[in-house]
Design goal:
Length: 579
């Protein structure tokens, strides 16, 4: 068979069923064979970046590897943003790109780009395939790399002559990559040392990151947390990994975290850090973060341990196995030693919860409250839905005001902060989970970057729901301009929702794409619009929620400051003990 046929045969052998892509000259042999593929569904996107984010959404919602295809040159470089996004958020992604004929490489041939070189810093590995014989091995190795260890994106760049060349196809998925030996089983001495620290801690906190979700370790986490009895905070990437309704859950930490979650980390004497990487959005000024805490840091990527904060007990391993081992060790310890009393710690945390509940103020201009809109989307849809957010204020509100009870329900661009992520990611999630309600919660700025994928949704019968939180501005940037730049709104006003001029009119835009499109401007319209969207499953739905531009995300820790300086609302810094 040809190398192109071998690509598809290899993907089928790996269990891949859905691919997002867009053809071009350097992948024509591959696309010709797609015509004859029975087991693979190819979804033609309208932009390669959309294909990359769709594959990310597919992976994040299902836990499987997402696959996308692009041609050489600009097709491949259009994937770069999605690849970088997947790298930052540990999303298992297989990107397949076409390349010019191997004898033309290095000659600045038409649509030539060194995509292997370009993506080297943002992939786990990039393969260049110049011979048909190399295809099965490269695809098998790439899939293995993407889905094992710390998940991430892998690129396979295949020259056109390798796609056209012939090979005797043999499928041998035994992958042996020199130097690639991810450690999944933790060192038993480190596990015991961690259990001893947990037993002695008076103010422990479980600091849980997205790695626990990627490892599918939510059930193990719940068991360990209940055994220890310590509070749990879940980062932006870990929302839903531990149920919001659980009495031990304090919410999300970080720049826009809840006051109890942020101050719990600051005042803790032990951080039980699982699958988190001490990101600057969580720590604030790292030198001032959790100053009295000892640190247990468990991660499958040894490069993350000690990178930001020195660990008293470093543990390298898969989160599910590490947590299970910790549970066993703590259970044994409870039979042989007395654990420290956490009663005063919980009294302090309950005081913070009572004094600083998560909430929002009514708007002063009569326009919709964006927090109310997002909260009602979550309440009317329920925890079985999937929620994909863009980046900005609406992302933070969606993380704060929707209650997440299960993993893989919350999809967002955490590390890279990629505007335009939401609509294609929701599309990919709906392909992966067709029986679930999937919302794209987007801002009017983000929505204008990738809304062309609504055409993909209509043509392929992918009925996502899109809530455009339309404040006619780049809201998060505007918030910083309000707070830090004295209200000098340089280039953040978009003219999409207020007054007589709407550029564009999102209702007309949605209708042009074949969607059901609704505009909501009054609070008494909010629930009816959401219910109509939930009842409509024969096409995508776009709801233009015209909200106040003055609404801000609170609480907030200003960049470069201590988390102890968290502000609960504008001009209101909470007064807590020790200040």
């Amino acid at each position: 068979m040809t190398g192109a046929q071998a690509v598809l045969r290899s993907l089928e052998a790996l269990g891949v069923t859905d691919i997002f892509g867009l053809p071009g000259g350097a992948v024509l042999p591959l696309y010709d064979t797609i015509m004859d593929a029975d087991k693979l569904r190819h979804i033609l996107v309208r932009h390669e970046q959309g294909g990359g984010h769709a594959a990310e959404g597919y992976a994040a919602a299902s836990g499987e590897v997402g696959v996308c295809i692009a041609t050489s040159g600009p097709g491949a470089t259009n994937l770069v943003t999605a690849i970088a996004d997947a790298y930052m958020d540990s999303v298992p992604l297989l990107a397949i790109t076409g390349q010019v004929f191997s004898h033309l490489m290095g000659t600045d041939a038409f649509q030539e780009a060194d995509i292997v070189g370009i993506t080297m810093p943002i992939t786990k590995h990039s393969f260049l395939v110049t011979s048909a014989d190399e295809v099965p091995g490269a695809i098998a190795a790439a899939y293995h790399l993407a889905s094992t260890g710390r998940p991430g994106p892998v690129l396979v760049d295949i020259t056109k002559d390798a796609q056209e060349g012939l090979l005797d196809f043999e499928w041998d998925p035994q992958v042996d990559l020199a130097g690639y030996r991810p450690i999944t089983k933790a060192n038993s001495k480190q596990i015991q040392a961690a259990a001893d620290l947990i037993a002695a801690a008076e103010r422990p906190v479980f600091y849980v990151g997205g790695g626990v979700g990627r490892a599918g370790a939510s059930a193990e986490l719940k068991q360990l947390a209940e055994l220890v009895g310590a509070p749990v905070v879940t980062t932006l990437m870990a929302r839903g990994v531990f149920p919001d309704s659980h009495p031990q859950h304090l919410g999300m930490p970080g720049m826009h975290g809840t006051v109890p979650a942020v101050l719990a980390l600051q005042e803790a004497d032990l951080l039980i850090t699982l699958g988190a990487r001490f990101d600057d959005r969580v720590t604030g000024k790292a030198a001032l973060f959790a100053p009295e805490a000892k640190v247990i840091h468990a991660d499958i990527d040894p490069a993350e341990i000690g990178k930001i904060r020195a660990a008293d007990v470093p543990i390298v391993g898969d989160a599910a196995e590490v947590i299970s081992d910790l549970t066993a060790a703590v259970s044994s310890a409870k039979m042989s030693q007395t654990f420290a009393d956490m009663g005063p710690w919980w009294e302090r945390l309950h005081e913070l919860q009572a004094k600083y509940p998560l909430g929002f103020q009514e708007t002063s201009d009569g326009l919709l409250s964006p927090q109310h809109v997002i909260q009602r989307i979550g309440e009317l849809t329920g925890p079985e839905g999937v929620y994909a957010a863009g980046v900005g204020q609406h992302q933070m509100w969606a993380a704060q005001f929707i209650k997440y009870e299960r993993p893989n329900a919350w999809l967002n661009s955490g590390g890279a902060g990629t505007m335009g992520y939401s609509v294609p990611a929701a599309m990919g999630a709906k392909v992966a989970e067709p029986d679930r309600v999937v919302w794209a919660i987007d801002g009017d700025g983000c929505f204008q970057m990738t809304n062309q994928e609504l055409a993909t949704c209509v043509v392929n019968n992918i009925p996502i729901k899109v809530a455009v939180i339309n404040n006619s501005s780049l809201g998060m940037v505007r918030q910083w301009q309000t707070l830090i730049y004295n209200g000098r709104y340089s280039n953040t006003e978009l003219n999409t929702g207020h007054g007589s001029q709407r550029v564009p009119d999102f209702v007309k835009l949605g209708e042009a794409y074949g969607c059901l499109a609704i505009r909501v401007e009054r609070e008494d319209q909010v629930d009816d619009a959401i219910r109509l969207a939930l009842e409509t499953n024969d096409r995508p739905v776009v709801i233009d929620f015209v909200v106040s531009a003055d609404a801000m995300v609170w609480p907030m820790v200003r960049q470069g400051t201590s988390n102890s300086d968290i502000q609960y609302a504008l001009d209101h810094a909470p007064e807590w003990e020790g200040e």
